Amino acid sequence: MSTVNLVTPDWLDTGNNSWQLTAASLVALQSVPGLCLLYAGLVKKKWAINSMFMVFYAFAMVLVVWTILGYEAAFGVKMLPFVGVPKPVLAMNMQLTQSTLPSANLSQNFPLSTMVYFQFAFAAITLALIAGAYLARMNFTAWMIFVPLWLLFSYCVGAYSIWGGGFLFQMGVIDYSGGYVIHLSSGTAGFVGAWWIGPRLQSDRKNFQPNNILFVMLGAGILWIGWNGFNGGDPYAASPDAGVAVLNTNLCTAVSLLTWTCMDLIFYRKPSIIGAINGMITGLVGITPAAGVVAGWGAIIIGVCTGIIPWISMNIAGKRMRLFTHHVDDTLGITHTHMVAGSLGGFLVGLFATSEGCAAFGITNPGGAIDGNGKQVWLQIVGILFVVGWNAVWTSLIMCFIKYVCRVPLRMSEEDMLIGDDAIHGEEAYCFSDDVDGLVPTITQEQRAHDRMSHDAERVRVLVGRDVEMGNGSGNSGEHGKIDGGEVKMD
Questions:
Q1: Could you report the per-residue pLDDT of 474-485, keeping only the tens digit for each?
Q2: The domain containing residue 463 runs over which residues?
């Protein structure tokens, strides 16, 4: 009987590798099932399948493209100041080696395969977030083309520039876990893409009642708890700073949720669970660029800001500005919850980053403005301008390529938009009726009730007629039965 020797390299820290794989799995759960449930519950019943499928497709397509070209473009050897050389990471001798970021001159004490999967989960959720702005009218074929193109030409550029050792990394822009790379970029793409695709049907815009708020709450809970891996995994180690990031993430989120709820109470006189979930999301987004480099009080301040400013953006600007009411139909408000909250969090990093937090994270920045480094504020603004500008341009170019070169419509037909899931996918979310091809339909409860009422009425008519013939005008038949309160009771 042969034995197999399991080789543990000197550079491998099994604890860090375990945490990194766990964090990656938590982030992956945020997309499937987290965002699938959140989106499916927030839309009308006729869009539940389509909204889930857009997320599900993006999750699968991103993984394939990421391993073939995307990872090395985002974290590999420098090709240009904003992107690495794209190439596959599929060979076994690559996947087993130690993870390194050559352009950033950094290494991790776990294998490259772990790093590839961890960063894939971030890339996948970025595309899933963009879908939230396009729901209820984007042609699914156009979405299938959009996902790999946007991943390569937009996401990978932002990831390399800020995380992979590109020019913004070298300048000292701080994005702890994706406030810029993920949320600001997805919010910008959602805003710009929604303009290119055009608005939903007017009937859908007027009446877009969530079809299952319980699903929404379940998806939101997965999103919140999954964020522990989202921010806690970015030190690339089970380090003290990972614990700080997890604590600050939850603290900021709780404050933002409560602040948003207070805003709803002040202006609408009613607390809303959907509003509270929006506040939760803006808190999660706002703390993401800052999680492990700000103190707890900084996380509280960020939470207050993300509970107020995106609320104003969504409930005042989003409902009154002609830009949003006539031109940019962002279905689930990704512009407000991710573009606004992401840029806000990134800016506040420049104010509240601490030198101790930066050192614990392994970066050389001497903190933010509170530690006398006012330059960090301007660096954060430069990062915002680049991410917004790059994504606005490339989202537009990709939309034009799909529409004018591929000749694929960006929008569904009017008929498909009226029908929804059944026209697009041949499926419906809730199949509680028995009216299925190949089966004999059973009588519904409503029909049973109608038949019972008709039967009882006929019994009453017969019995009353019999009593009249027998000279008992009171309508009571002591021998055969009695009529009591409209119900026939047999003796």
A1: 333 333 333 333
A2: 446-489
